[in-house]
């Protein structure tokens, strides 16, 4: 990353707004990123400030061998401790979100959250099955109480036992975790233990520290994040493909524009429902608007996009730019990835910024607190606030209106369904396509967009190059938003840009070559898909060793580090863009790459050059193919076994069989 050069966005609409902001002397994160050079010591993991004898900066030519903090801590200890604290914070963020989802499910099941219901009973039963909870013949709400209660145990279990969903991982993957002592016991416990171990004078062995980091990250991936995904599906529906649009053109000049931004889906769901109520629509008309337009930002966007086709304005770096369109009447923000800068910025426009979480407030913002017991009324109040603000809309603003079409909604359950219909859903066709060499491998392209690089540009570059190379891309979080704004999440993209094997597969089933799987917590869907591929047979019998790689080219959040670590511990080689937060220590870097790969078949690399990221990913994929004794990938040459079941074949199969509930 060029740390002191002002970057712009690779999304032309965003770049136009950034240019417009310059003419108006409005500051963005792109300006601040150019102004503020990262501290070169903190950036590399060489600064310790866990006690007040420091901060100790372990620098110098031979720092790794010679430098010591006042207490005697080595550079490797300091770098490992710093990473552990990042993992703890990231895991805490996803998992605290998950806790709220579990408490909401409990409240709904007990009839205490009257505005919500269990939308996807089949998913509830599926989850009950994972948890060994009897569901046949029982009232749905009783099953939901048991599911919520058992999942809540995963947060605070104090004595024997481990996180419930670890059992969903392949046996061999679990055996590796057991061997290295990283089966998480409970989510809160592992996070607290991270903070304890990294306090002054506790754990000083870098390897031992990092192993606990992996255990904590597994509590996030196979605990908090997976719990959040499942409960959100139970409450609001398991995603299936939906059409939608992305980028700033989603805002409407003649309608009330209300944006939902942050991470938790519950209030956003209520807002989506409230916005189609006649009374509120009439109220909007009475204020001169033609309707109420809900748009999303960051991961709340992904949640309502996946389930309702609500359009997304984009990822993290688009939040200030969205306000600069001058078209947003109100933006609600709950938790995570919200720039405090938007509160001041909104004052220069007419936009109301509304904080909604009891956990997060911003000076200068309006606060309307969410309460699940009264969810719809609060949503209505927010919609009314946006409507009341519509007449205050001024002419000022960039009024940029480009947008791109997209298809989102690829849940684990839908991916299973699309490979055989309601009755024969499986992962066999996907595994066969990989074995035949039609699909070279799979990449999870995830993580944030970042103003220190041409924002969204690294996602665009890698997505394009990977699909050209017949690599199926699955995306989440702001990586998905980056691909969406570029117009990549369409079946047409496969026809125009995918390699011949991937194109054939996408054409047969009418899917894009990049499958949008949801928000950041929905990276857990990638874990369950990989587990299903292992169970299906023909590839690796564990997640490790699959021709699959994780990439987060523009990461910035501690949550991304937690995700990268649980992917690595689960068996994915992971490559992050940008600089390494542990680069000061060769020992820690070696542990996270070579040593983790030996133990878990996963690794976490940092590589700022996107071309090298691509080359590394393809090398990992090709090496895995070779180790699995699959045919060598050659573009355009593959064996002629059946492709994934096409639409016509699937319809035939369904006609012939008895009706069944839903997609799974
Ligand atoms: Fe310095 Fe040790 Fe205190 Fe860290 S814990 S700030 S290295 S004295
Ligand atoms: S929102 S963590 S900027 S992906 Fe999930 Fe985007 Fe990164 Fe936040």
Short description:
The protein is α/β, with parallel strands linked by helices. Helices cover 49% and strands 9% of the residues.
Which helices and strands appear, and what pairs or packs with what?
Layout (H helix, E strand, L loop, with lengths): L11 H12 L5 H7 L4 H4 L3 E2 L7 E2 L5 H4 L8 H35 L11 H10 L9 H17 L14 H9 L7 H12 L7 H31 L5 E5 L9 E7 L2 H10 L3 H9 L5 E6 H11 L10 H6 L5 E4 L7 H7 L4 E4 L10 E2 L7 H15 L14 E5 L3 H7 L2 H4 L3 H9 L4 E5 L11 H12 L2 E5 L1 H9 L5 H7 L2 H10 L4 E3 L6 H14 L11 E5 L5 H13 L2 E4 L9 H15 L2 E4 L3 H18 L19 H10 L8
Parallel strand pairs: 4-5, 4-6, 6-7, 7-8, 10-11, 10-13, 11-12, 13-14, 14-15
Antiparallel strand pairs: 1-2, 3-9
Helix pairs in contact: 5-7, 5-9, 5-10, 5-25, 6-7, 6-10, 7-10, 9-10, 10-24, 10-25, 11-16, 20-27, 22-23
The protein binds iron/sulfur cluster and Broken Fe4S4 cluster.
Provide an overview of this structure.
The protein is α/β, with parallel strands linked by helices. The protein is 49% helix and 9% strand. The chain folds into three domains: 75-236, Substrate Binding Domain Of Dnak, Chain:A, Domain 2, CATH 1.20.1270; 248-392, Rossmann fold; 413-656, Rossmann fold (3-Layer(aba) Sandwich). The chain has 28 helices and 15 strands. The strands form four sheets. It has a six-stranded parallel sheet with strand order 12-11-10-13-14-15, with helices on both faces. Residues 298-299, 315-316, 337, 447-448, 477-478, 519-520, 557, 559-560 line the site of Broken Fe4S4 cluster (MSK). Iron/sulfur cluster (SF4) binds at residues 48-51, 53-56, 69-71, 73, 78, 200.
